[in-house]
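From the thread on structure requests for the teaching lab: each student submitted one protein with a one-line request. Submission from student K.M.:

"Model Phosphate transport system permease protein PstA from Nitrincola nitratireducens, tokens only."
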Amino acid sequence: MQRLIGQRISYQSTDQGTQEYLFRRSEAQAAYQDFIWLTDAQINTMTQRPELMTLEHRTFGRLIAEPILLRLSPTSTITPPPVDWPEQIKTAQKDAQLTLLLGNGEALTLNLVDILEIHFPNQLSWVEKMQVFGKGLLQFMVESPRQGGTEGGIFPALFGTVITVLIMTVFVTPIGVMAAVYLHEYARLGWITQTIRIAVYNLAGTPSIVFGVFGLAFFVYTLGGSIDQLFYSESLPMPTFGTPGLIWVSLTLALLTLPVVIVSTEEGLARIPKSVREGSLALGASHTETLWRIVLPLTTPAILTGLILAIARAAGEVAPLMLVGVVKLAPELPLDAEFPFLHLDRKIMHLGYHIFDLAFQTGRTDASLPFVFTTALLLILLIILLNLSAILLRNRLRVRFQDDKKPI
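Reply posted by the TA:
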């Protein structure tokens, strides 16, 4: 029977009435089989050994092993005593070396300076386990991906998603509202206006990948190439804006969600009673003043409803983003302390694309699945948070305008 050092994750009952256990292997990096299922018949004994440790290494990722030797200097070594062995490792200098015994019987020597985290899980109390869990969750939120996304965190993807949605909102809100105001308040009824409305409705049902192709052709190559010719000719043939980047991702998403904002705003304008407009005009206000001071404030809840739907769709899109600026790994964030601070030409990471990449483009599927599920949950929570913020703002404005209409 072969010895296995690893972490038991879960178990399940089979149709034959036996139990199957899921283990995370200690030598996963070498075997590229991070998880393995074993049945009762394949397990002779299963014990929890207090000396086993888990660690995060810069190169090898997460390892589960038995420490067998701590080399403090060329002439000073320590073998694991039964009591203070964990403390010896944690207090050793960073130039020390730690030798581990993996589950396949191989010995692995690591420099402590390359080890990010060390834990002895079988020696932790319940409170210490919760502290380790909380620290791991924080690292997942604030660190960059490692080991092809199967280790580390997802902060660049989270940051890229949020800033993309915010910039998209800045673009889509004024354009969508102005288009809806023109169609409902100024455009004459006729076949031209009807054709525009039909085109808007059709755009709402267009596959998102079509917007990605259009964004690549028009925004990146045409508009971005023209900007490079006018303002960055000294950098050519290396493009500055004539290549996928944050600005083109945001504009593509704005174009994708524009029909939603237009339709929602126009429906809000249609619900404003005609008597409100007539009363304002009767008091001497112009048509523009009536629209700006009376009609649009009353339409704000409908505008925010359109934004809620736009944010929900934009935050989860993947297909068009791969063409206009979202990449597997972005070396730099688009926002930093270097002028102009917000770098619209940089490529970004995105939670949706990060999920796709981990699920289908990595060779270590078993190791990436926990990150896929966690990132998907985080994306859902992010969309809920953005939507709740818009809903709360909409409800506050709705109550405010209802109070303004009460008689004095």
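TA comment: The chain has two domains: 6-123, 155-404. The radius of gyration is 29 Å.
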